């Protein structure tokens, strides 16, 4: 299916690992999918991080809708033919010695997209998910997609809280029969990456990429979901 089909939104969630691995392979993986929305975890950071993210976006045919600032460990790239409104980064509470995390969000063609990258500690994940639900998923303005790296297996507490948000969100991979492991990329054993969607966005297809480039591009395999947009 072509990501540019009218009425279809192709969402790809991918942990880029700071662009520290095989950059050409990473670009090839994204270009092969031609996503409308790329939900990024672990974008490049530091003094040159934003410039490197823009360069990566340009090579993949996308543009940066949210990157840097409060988004921190997340970013949102969008195809140039898609409309973007209300783009913002949300800083999450931070404690000394831990990673400064954030959330990227925007309305893309009327769909509220929220990109998350949760931490390794269960207590921190719980606090951050509760904040995301309160700030972004309570009374959302239109259909909702939550995409990202939860650092938690399906059925865990963070999955459960997010599944109950915004009137109920479903795991697109499970709906499409694509509940396949995403981590680690070379020999995947668990799925910690997710695209959650509400009932107004029927799932047309979903898959985890498994070609040769995926094994060297990052330490995660990307999850891709095709959604039907409401008329």
UniProtKB/TrEMBL annotation:
Keywords: Endonuclease, Hydrolase, Nuclease. One of its GO terms (molecular function) is endonuclease activity. Residues 12-220 form the Endonuclease/exonuclease/phosphatase domain. The keyword Cytoplasm does not apply. InterPro entries: Endo/exonu/phosph_ase_sf (IPR036691), Endo/exonuclease/phosphatase (IPR005135). The keyword Nuclease applies. It comes from the Bacteria. Signal peptide: none annotated. This is Endonuclease/exonuclease/phosphatase family protein. It comes from Cellulomonas dongxiuzhuiae. The lineage of its organism: Bacteria, Bacillati, Actinomycetota, Actinomycetes, Micrococcales.
């Amino acid at each position: 299916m072509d990501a540019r089909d009218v009425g279809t939104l192709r969402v790809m969630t991918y942990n880029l690992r700071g662009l520290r691995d095989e950059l050409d392979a990473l670009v090839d993986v994204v270009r092969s999918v031609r996503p409308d929305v790329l939900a990024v975890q672990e974008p490049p950071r530091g003094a040159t991080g934003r410039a490197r993210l823009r360069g990566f976006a340009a090579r993949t045919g996308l543009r940066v809708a949210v990157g840097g600032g409060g988004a921190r460990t997340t970013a949102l790239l969008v195809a140039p033919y898609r409309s973007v409104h209300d783009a913002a980064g949300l800083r999450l509470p931070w404690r000394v010695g831990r990673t400064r995390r954030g959330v990227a969000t925007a309305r893309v063609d009327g769909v509220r997209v929220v990109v998350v990258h949760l931490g390794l500690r269960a207590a921190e994940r719980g606090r951050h998910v509760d904040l995301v639900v309160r700030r972004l998923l309570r009374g959302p303005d239109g259909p909702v997609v939550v995409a990202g790296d939860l650092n938690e297996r399906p059925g865990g507490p963070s999955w459960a809280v997010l599944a109950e948000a915004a009137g109920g969100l479903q795991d697109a991979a499970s709906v499409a029969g694509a509940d396949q492991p995403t981590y680690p990329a070379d020999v995947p054993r668990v799925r910690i990456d997710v695209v959650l969607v509400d009932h107004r966005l029927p799932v047309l297809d979903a898959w985890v990429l498994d070609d040769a480039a995926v094994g060297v591009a990052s330490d995660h395999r990307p999850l891709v979901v095709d959604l039907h947009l409401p008329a």
